[in-house]
Recover the amino acids of this structure.
């Protein structure tokens, strides 16, 4: 059973601007945010996921985006080191949760920015690490040693796709949803060399900005933001069952389904 760390959106809101999606003038609706979050949680449980909930903290509106808690594999948790001061206070809360739940915690140097599973994801035998916008490329050398796993760095060049999980979604069967213009030419070449063309789906821009790639895959189920019909059609044709969920309140902050979860297995 796939386990995810999640955090209720009790204190979620747009209180600062650290990516192109965030505008303080475009306030979130607390009631609608809560409704959408709980709908996502129900859908994840319906497809077989187990959810581990952490306590929200007043004054930390982005704590809800638990994908940025850190990265977890093989019982080891590496907490994030956030680039923006607005999110750095989250680090102690995520670290404490990992310790309290029995993970072996390894911390990075405070000056080595790394934003967790928002920037590090991939297939069982091949991981990819996004860098430039938030995480440092040098973090992946350290993480390779910690996890004994090859990590291929991918440079992100569009500020709207500031984390890897906003434009890159590996699926359980080896397929990939991605948005190529988010990457520099070399990164696109790396992806093309490592993922065969028949397994790659180039998400159209209209759906990339609806966060089609910010999806959660549980076995053959894919939970993704509503409003991505072409991506859903491709998923169905390739043996997956898509489950659209309204998440526009969280898109105001630059996140969707994947951002709201951290895989713990």
């Amino acid at each position: 059973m796939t386990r995810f760390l999640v955090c209720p959106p009790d204190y979620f809101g747009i209180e600062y601007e650290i990516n192109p999606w965030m505008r303080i003038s475009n306030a979130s609706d607390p009631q609608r945010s809560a409704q959408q979050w709980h709908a996502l949680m129900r859908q994840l449980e319906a497809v077989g996921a187990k959810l581990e909930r952490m306590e929200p903290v007043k004054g930390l509106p982005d704590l809800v985006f638990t994908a940025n808690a850190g990265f977890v594999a093989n019982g080891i948790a590496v907490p994030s080191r956030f680039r923006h001061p607005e999110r750095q206070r989250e680090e102690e809360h995520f670290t404490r949760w990992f310790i309290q739940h029995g993970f072996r915690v390894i911390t990075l140097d405070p000056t080595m920015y790394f934003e967790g599973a928002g920037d590090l994801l991939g297939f069982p035998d091949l991981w990819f690490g996004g860098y430039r916008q938030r995480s440092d490329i040098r973090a992946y050398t350290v993480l390779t040693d910690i996890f004994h796993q090859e990590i291929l760095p991918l440079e992100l060049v569009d500020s709207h796709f500031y984390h890897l999980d906003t434009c890159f979604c590996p699926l359980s069967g080896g397929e990939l949803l991605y948005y190529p213009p988010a990457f520099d030419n070399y990164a696109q070449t790396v992806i093309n060399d490592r993922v065969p063309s028949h397994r790659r789906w180039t998400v159209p821009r209209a759906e990339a900005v609806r966060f089609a790639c910010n999806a959660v895959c549980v076995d053959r189920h894919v939970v993704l933001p509503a409003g991505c019909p072409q991506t859903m059609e491709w998923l169905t044709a390739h043996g997956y069952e898509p489950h659209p969920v309204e998440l526009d309140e969280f898109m105001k902050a630059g996140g969707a389904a994947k951002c709201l979860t951290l895989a713990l297995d």
Notes: The mean pLDDT is 98. The chain has one domain: 3-263. The CA atoms of residues 197 and 226 lie 26 Å apart. The longest strand covers residues 126-131.
